[in-house]
């Protein structure tokens, strides 16, 4: 019988998921000259999802991909951060964001998620590779490739499948099902890898220039008991904000809750009177919202990121709470590490063996899992710190952390950020030579 991949004489990647990770992969492969097809169950540049924080090490990758210029035009780099208690007292005025910008020569920004998606999508040269409203329903592996079936019944042939389809990853579930045939405990671990202890309402609201909730480039943090809030004005006329609330009980995937608009309204009724910054409350922000939704904050890192010709990326392998805004940036680190392994392999072996591909997947895992573990751990600590989850954290917030200099905090962050990878097969921006010389 002829191989179902007999007509594929060029290495092809199949990607499930067309959000920030999938589109980032598409651009990375296009720049590397690697053939691919991407399948997204919904629309590209969807209005779902309120905002995305982008950090300096991700900006470097976006510069390499040629998309940062279009993003930079839309944003205002964050500069100042004020920390308040529940009585409206500002106990820390921080300029750490300015210090980070000075050290790394790149800012930390917040923007609408849909606008970031629009920019990424617009830079993909060959749109015929992008298939919207085309959900992956299954896959089968052959001796020399993988066959993906989509919900419209069509089959697509490639050499590897990347699951970049988020926390509710269909590809992860399919991969776990394959693994369960030989290792049921491992499959169970993969399916139940994430827990949720906090819930979050995240939204975008109008920030009327005539009566702003907070000035442009400003971040407000407010600390309560078992809940907290953050508001950031990273785009003129808008404020991105988050309400974090400790849940009544810890849940675990696949049984973490799904919330409705009614659930969000009830949460606002309960916590809406909480001040976020001087002169405005959670309810004020909610009433001025452009869009908003409520989600559980899953946390965790799965134990196995690949199986044969399938490899996972982004929220499908690691999920951090969103307080420091590092989760999406982890995904771009993953894009860099995986493509950095594939590009030289394909130059050497245009149609690599499963053993060679496994080596690349293992290298990607070994490089990225420690970063994921660190981010998930630190993010969880920050969530609990801001929600004053214990007297120790409350004491630290009021009497320890404010006395640590912004410059020291910025240096610690810069050390972490510098550890992020870049795309080794594309030129580094000129600015990085200056940064390297100053360290």
From TrEMBL:
One Pfam family linked to the record: FAD_binding_3
Keyword annotations: FAD, Flavoprotein, Membrane, Oxidoreductase, Transmembrane, Transmembrane helix
Record-linked Gene3D superfamilies: FAD/NAD(P)-binding domain
Compartments, record wording: Membrane
Lineage: superkingdom: Eukaryota
Family of this protein: Belongs to the paxM FAD-dependent monooxygenase family.
Name recorded for this polypeptide: FAD-binding domain-containing protein
Species the sequence originates in: Penicillium bovifimosum
UniProt lineage: Eukaryota, Fungi, Dikarya, Ascomycota, Pezizomycotina
